Amino acid sequence: MRGLTELTGGAPAGVDEALGLVDGFDAALTGGFGRLGAEQSAALGALAGALAGSPLGGPAAEAVDKIAAGAVAEAHLLTLAGARTALFGSVHDALLAQLDGAVGRTRARCPAADGDDVAANLLAGCRSWLAELAIAGWRGVDHDLVSAADQFVEGLLKEPRLRGAAVLLDGLAAELRASSPVATMEAIPERRWADLWARGMLLTRAGAAATAAEEVSGRLLVLGVDVHEHGTSVQVQVHGVLEVDGGDARLVRTAVAAPKVDTITGPPMWRLLDAHPTLLKALAERRCLNVADMALRPGGDLVWDDGRARAGKEADPFAVARVQLADAVAAEPPPLDRHPVRIAEPVFLEGYAVNETALELDGRAIDIDVDRLPACGPVTPELVRASTSCIGLVRWDGTWRVQPLAVQATVKKKPVEAGTGDWALGPTDPKVLKATSRTGDAVGVLRERAGRLLRK
To answer: How many angstroms separate the CA atoms of 162 and 124, rounded?
Structure first.
């Protein structure tokens, strides 16, 4: 915690200026690159100018000149997507270096991944659709333009190596479809949609499907669980320390996901993930996981395979955090993952006081991200405010924040310990059990109805 308070001094030099250039690009994309005004052309030129000393500087300047002259080509748009991504990458690197310096974290270099040239025709179709979006601008998006992506996205979803690009484009199309016609919207999520557009352009370029991964065996010690819940899907991301057989301890994360409907929320959500019983058992019972020959991607993502894991002995997350977190080696993010929004670094904090929305120590404070606390676990804002120790994720959203994953607190003069994954096999709080029993088994009912429909 004492090192983490160094983050309260503000962002590194140049971050605000770089984000201002991105804002100018995103505003131009909202209006459409097919009808740039003087202000929008200047914004694109400023972004290209910021990269003048890099290998992207020349191509970016040429792309801006061509687009400003009305000659919008797919190659120019791809170059600008790369320029925007590179600028965000520099912001990410500066922020991550600041965080690593504060907590004393070391990183292993990310090896280059070979790309597969797979489904080139589908990728080309997706790039063409993204180019049409950029030319029309978000305010020019209507149902016809959105539906043009359907056949290409459907094809990508059938190719496992392109699943990342497919899910991203499917999500962007779904958001645009729900918002169409976009011209009637009062406020447009410019940065979010521009993020998705730029990443989509780069993920659909030739040879972008990366395949690099190493097989690892060892013991995974869980630190905490982060839950990403949306109306139609849920993902549980587990952060931990992997003791690799014959190697150093590494900071890794692994995730499992499932589709859902918006009526399933809170503790019943865990039942959607029952295809991963070994993982759920380890989370609920706070056990380590022995993994064998499981794929580990260069960025530190363990590709979860429940059949290659077995639950081991009990492992206290707070003991793991106190003893091993500081020395575990983190992975350097791959190039396309270098974006401030993707920073989520596990840390251990203790000896602090809580002042409503911030953790305080030695007169300095860092904000608590209570909005990210999921309803499917026992960690609540009230418990966080009563805590004195915490395992959390440090994130950056204009300022540094801590998202608690597990806390140690004193409630009514008794020690209490809670983690987000404690209810992976069902809630243990009698009040929550009573409440969920009144609402019935929504997951079971929906599965039974779905099975009945499939049998007809």
So the answer is: 13
